[in-house]
Amino acid sequence: MEKNGFFVEVKDMVEEYVDDRMLLLKLQATEKAAKASATLFLGVVITFISLILFMIISFIAGYYLSQAVDSYPGGFAILAGIYVLLIFVLVFVHKKYTGKLIIDSIIKFSFDKKETWSNEV
């Protein structure tokens, strides 16, 4: 009779442990999602403000170049050429360097050392 009581008690403890682990995993996933959402929101806001600032600076540069070459189309065409060249440079740099950096950052964020299995037990 004692063995049946022991196994029932162990079964209850294992079920409680599994439930606690599942709750812990849900809380960790929620924390990661919340951090990712906050970071994404901040990134979108900063990108939007930067885009507006970039557009204003582009108009100023376009008008300056237009006055320098005495032609509105010429000045803005020079600026457009600079931007096309910049796009090609950014695509080249992204393929070589920044793509790997972004992937590594996401992996480090997903597997933060303070939340490994060995530290939770």
List the helices and strands and how they pair.
Elements: H1 2-69, H2 72-110, H3 117-120
Overview of this protein structure:
There is one protein chain. The protein is mostly helical. The chain has one domain. Helices cover about 90% and strands about 0% of the residues. It contains three helices and no strands. The longest helix is centred in the N-terminal third of the chain and has 68 residues, at about 1-70. It is rod-shaped, with a radius of gyration of 28 Å. Mean pLDDT is about 85; it is low at about 115-120.
Instruction: Give the overall pLDDT as a whole number.
Output: 87
Please report which band the strand proportion falls in: under 5%, 5-15%, 15-25%, 25-35%, 35-45% or over 45%: under 5%
Q: Unreliable runs, pLDDT <50, ≥5 residues? A: 116-121
Radius of gyration: 28 Å
Terminal-residue CA separation: 32 Å
Order of helices and strands: HHH
Basic shape: rod-shaped
Number of domains: 1
Instruction: Please describe the biggest sheet, giving its number of strands, its sense, and whether it closes into a barrel.
Output: none
Number of strands: 0
Percentage of residues assigned to helices? over 70%
Q: Counting H and I runs of at least 4 residues, what is the number of helices?
A: 3
Q: What class would the helix/strand composition place it in?
A: mainly alpha
